[in-house]
Amino acid sequence: MKWFITVLAPVAVAMILCATPAMGDVPRYYIEKDVGLYGNLDQDDVGPGGNVMCGPTAAINSFVYLENKYADVYDRHLVPDTEIPPDGVRDYDELVNAALTIAAANYMNTTSPGGTWDDMFIYGKWRYIEDQIPGVTFYSAQMLGMWAWPGPPGNPRPPTQIPPIPKPIWVTDNMYPTWQFIFQELAHCEDVEILMSWEGGGHFLTLTGFDFTDADGDGVMDPEENAVMMYIDPCDGLAHASGIWNVLAGSDYEIMTDYETGAIITMAVSESIPEPATIALIACSIMGLVGAMRRRLR
What we know:
Largest sheet: 6 strands, antiparallel, barrel
Shape: globular
Mean pLDDT: 86
Structural class: alpha+beta
Low-confidence stretches: 1-23, 276-283, 285-298
């Protein structure tokens, strides 16, 4: 069993995807994928500016997942086998080379000390995938910022740091990413990355799991409900977990995390083959397990 979803009471598949509890039920929204399907690239190994390479690194670690999960579709198109002749082994230096490629100006245009803009991450990853293997991937994204934001008055973004395409129809901007979106995309066997932002910093992660028991049934991750996100951290290429919870921000809820003081999730993006949700769930999950033990990765 690669990974599984559990709820505290057996409910319909659509109910889990919509995150809508049945009357009287206390649902647990839980999916934990096999971290062995993901890459283990450490951003510090990606060129001399490795300290700003979390975006490209998170993308490459997610590409390994897509290649492992959907080998018949992606094969080695996303992290190319550069050995001559190809040896069929995904070597660590091939992860590094792929990260350097996607960090380049024609994709994410990751710079030091600037790092990677949220919309350039989305654009660069989309452009790279479509250049390598066009027309087989489904995309979706939510972001707090504005697509192609020109920058503040007097300090505009360089044109090379602005996506050269109009906002795709699958990107929703000017909104806080929701936990429902994150859980749903993970449950659909999609590859999911997030951007966390805080005063003076930010960091990309590759998500591998999610766990939230909605004890009071209000659809809000209250701090005392101890929700958790699981991920591969580009800082070391290893699996970890951090607490997450909702805070009311105006008329919406933002997702905060204890990964860093004051950090909120400001972007979430997913990619996968366009597979019907019910087929994906049957393929990658076991439904209705009660009180299953969850492995915490710290």
